[in-house]
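Summary for the steering committee. One of the milestones for this cycle was to obtain a three-dimensional model of the protein with uridine-5'-diphosphate bound, which we needed before selecting residues for the alanine scan. The sequence and ligand used are listed below.
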Amino acid sequence: MLHAPPPLEAAGSPVAHSRCLLRDLGGHGAVPADPSALYDADAATTRFLLERILRESGTARRLLTSSSSPRSSSTDAVDTDSKEPEDPADFAPGLVPVSGRADPTSVASSSGTPPATALNQPLESTEQVPASRLSALLGPNGRVLIVANRLPVTAKRHPVKKWEYPSSSGGLVSALQGIKDVQMMWVGWPGVSVPNETDQTVITEELFKRRCVPVFLDEELMDQYYSGYCNKILWPLFHYLGLPQEYKINKAKGIKSQFEAYTQANQMFAETVCKIYKEGDIIWCHDYHLMCLPKLLKQYNINMKVGWFLHTPFPSSEMYRALPNRAELLEAVLKADLVGFHAYDYARHFVSACISLLGLEGDLDGIQFDRRIVKVDAFPIGIDAQRFTKALEGPKVKEKITEFKKLFAGRKVILGVDRLDMIKGFLQKLLAFEKFLEKNEELDSGYKVVLLQIAVPTRSDVPEYRKLASQVHELVARVNGRFGTLKATPILHLDQTVDFDSLCALYAITDVALITSLRDGMNLVSYEYVACQESNKGVLILSEFAGAAQSLGAGSIIVNPWDIAEVADAIKRALDMPTEDREKHHRHNYELVSRHTAQDWAENYVCDLYNATSKAPLRAIHTTVLPIGEAAAQYGQSNNRLLILGFNATLTGQIELFEEGVDIEPKLNPEFKQPLKTLCDNENTTVVVVSGYGKSILDKNFADYKLWLVAENGMFFRRPGEEWITTRYEQDEISWAGSVKKVFEYFTKRTPRSNFEQRESSLVWNYKYADVQFGRNQATDLLQHLGAYSLSNQSAVVVQGSRSIEIRPMGVTKGKAVGEIIRELDLRNIMATPIDYVLCIGHFLAKDEDIYTLPSFDVQPGAKRKGKGCQAEDCSSIKFDLNHKNYFSCTVGREHSVARYNLKGTSEVVSLLQDLAAAAAPGNMSHPP
Ligand SMILES: O=P(O)(O)OC[C@H]1O[C@H](O[C@H]2O[C@H](CO)[C@@H](O)[C@H](O)[C@H]2O)[C@H](O)[C@@H](O)[C@@H]1O
Ligand SMILES: O=c1ccn([C@@H]2O[C@H](COP(=O)(O)OP(=O)(O)O)[C@@H](O)[C@H]2O)c(=O)[nH]1
């Protein structure tokens, strides 16, 4: 049996590494008699981390009571590895604190856990890993706790040693092992059920040396949680294969009981994390197995920095909504500080599921949930390409290359490397290859072309996987029987893992890699193949449904795996591709694969997570009711005021009912007329009305007022009594408008009481009068339609309101428009005396909430400061004299906002404006204009 990732117990293992540390420190003599002295000296919580894990899991009593020789501590102790040291001082090597860098002589860290480099760097390497952004951010003691269902090593029964610890398979493990220069600790399932407590103890101890902490789940729980809910429900659903028919499931193991097992398993993961958690740790939860984990961890400690990353696709919300526990899982994930995906499509689907199924507000900037803005983003994974390129230079791989070249001499080799999973499109691949052979019989294909398929065994406890295996075997036999010759068979199919050296050699010598995933979160095999093809320049055939197609598409032959004839033709094209084209394709892919590494991926993710949490207080939404009296009193006392007022749902009258054909144009609520007039006529007050509506609607409503107007969310503005001008210097390309309009028309027709509005620079589909649930469902569909049309156009953005979808030019926001107006005020000398009062109030969408923070309102009293977002030379004289007493940011009718204050609705705004007007009335003014 073979496996791919580097052997963890080889020279570079923590065990060997630590031995070297001891040697470099002067051998065993330099090690304190009490190995615990080597533990973390600073943090009591981790000082006896292993002991604590064992003690609290109730499995290690015997081990812990025998301090002198852990290995002999139990009579039925498991023989884990005959190479292991007998000396108790050597028992601790995995716990020896070493720095997060690759310097094997360094012992600086006090975290009590070995660094990732011990795992990832071969011991012989003396190369210094430069300090990464990550290590700089986390500091010497900062740790990342990786929580994933699968650990990077699997505990496996062994006939002699009883237990061995081979590397685990799969992209998640490969990718995370590519991360360097950060102290990582893994929490996960050890790959096997271990009912015996003594075995659990030994395994815990052994895994701990490899910086892994096991979560022991018994067989029944694994069956229901992993084989059941994870792999029979979530996995197929997330890969667009739908949910299984309930009648096929044994009632006791139905979706309900599987979900209970799922939550129970998540709870056990959470408990284990909490045992090893220490303040400052970053907790990175991985994948669909652990969707409840962010919530459980935050319940334990709200200050934990928790991220969640999904390695699979997140399906369209239409698919996802079939899941009985859909809302519960989304809400649990949203407790994380950062939610990450491999691709924007997946992130977008997630956001629209939150909007349509939970009724939340949000877009790709974040989702408003639980009085916070949860960040959602795409972080496409990469690989550690150097690990492959270096391996190719080593003697072992070179030897294998020679061996394989001999074996396949005279034949073109097409390579497939996949877990034997239905998402990988095995049957489609075999059918396409069969079709290729049919069409190209002149090749005497059985001899000249071979499909070498490594089918890595996976999830064989799930019946669907066993069924797939037999279907695959049947098809392989058919093709081989049909096209085989006495000299050779066209398909070489191995139900095995391959060791890392063999895998590299195969990647290097084969002519074509054939990846036919029906859906795949990313697909790292395609990256690894490219990394190994520097000299061969083999061709990559890649399914358009693999996340990797978005990055490697330009250098690959992209296929729809369901189109068997297309894939067959692609095989022929790949085999016949001229050298020049192969080189061009390869160059593109190689640059991407070597530049965009797993390290980058992890750094980007963890840095964003760190930032999301450190900025959390700023992002958190804590509005309080606007103190109208105070706002009015301050107004009365100030000399140069700026009032920024939203229009819709702030100054408008309430439109209660929508009837088809009835004019629903918004109108200024008559109660505002008087106070607004007074405020606008006050020469020490500048009033700006900001709206998403078009210019003509604003003109109609505000013709009688001396105020500034902003239309179409900042695309245009108008000085009092002057002409409209655009805030954009160049005419924006709105070529997307036509296709968006068609989609909007289509949905307007099919959604009773919805309407759409085409403005000069934007389009809005509004469903606030439609049936709530139906409207949301339609909105989800509409977003998908838009994805197929205009969203790929980089110059447009989708802005989702609670009951609307708007497409506007990129970079247009209300905040930016107000920035422009402030620049104008300055140019017109309206700010000769500093602005000493600002009220910014409106029912603004999250996208436009930049209006509350523009420009630098954090200036101290009396400070003179340039406005943000202005050209320095233009704005040199802009002055504000603002502080928290004279700056009022206020949302209207929204629960969540970054504004400081809130008012419930229009009638409160009427009172406010009346009070302001009265406060500035001649008799009431402390500073006459
Ligand atoms: O742990 P298993 O159940 O044996 O499955 C192995 C892994 O399969 C999935 O991998 C995904 O992650 C890759 C890296 O991000 C990605 O390239 C690939 O497209 C995905 O399928 C699964 O998501 C992991 O949790 C499993 O460990
Ligand atoms: O015998 C093997 C063959 C491959 N791989 C690795 O498994 C990973 C597969 O990741 P991918 O993203 O392609 O798909 P996943 O299996 O995670 O769905 C790659 O890193 C391969 O190097 C493995 O561990 N053992």
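Key point for the committee: DSSP finds 34 helices and 30 strands in the chain.
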